[in-house]
């Protein structure tokens, strides 16, 4: 922002204070308000743009491009994600919601069973050690 623009805002949106050395200082909160400006929606959009795409943005773009029949190379270049990530998204796109939920529940059940088996084996080993002593 130019000096003349700052000067025009003094007294309306900026209210600098002079310190003991005679230097005019601006309140950081006023500067933030001036820089951020605009509506809440505009500030959120600007923040998203500065922080880059969200995981959801990346997934949405990958799904859309998969629907359009784009290949792995095109998707990687367009969304700037590593091929491994795009492959995972592609598998998710292929599976669909209901099948994905079924597989997720199967995985949870498998992990639970594996944990129970490990606990049983551990208890059995402890019992055998106790009997041998």
What features would you describe in this structure?
The chain has a two-stranded antiparallel sheet. With 133 residues, the protein is mainly alpha-helical. It has a domain of 52 residues. It contains seven helices and two strands. α4 packs across α6.
Nearest-angstrom radius of gyration?
Answer: 29 Å
Number of helices: 7
Terminal Cα span:
82 Å
**What share of the residues lie within helices?**
over 70%
Strand content: under 5%
Q: What does the main sheet amount to?
A: 2 strands, antiparallel
Spatial strand arrangement across the major sheet:
1-2
- Bulk shape: elongated
Task: List segments where confidence is low: pLDDT < 50 over at least 5 consecutive residues.
Answer: none
The SSE order reads HEEHHHHHH
Describe how the helices and strands are arranged.
Blueprint (H helix, E strand, L loop, with lengths): L2 H7 L7 E2 L5 E2 L2 H9 L3 H12 L3 H13 L4 H8 L3 H13 L1 H36 L1
Antiparallel strand pairs: 1-2
Provide a compact summary of the structure:
By secondary structure, the chain is mostly helical.
Question: What key attributes describe this structure?
Answer:
single chain; 133 residues; two-stranded antiparallel sheet; elongated
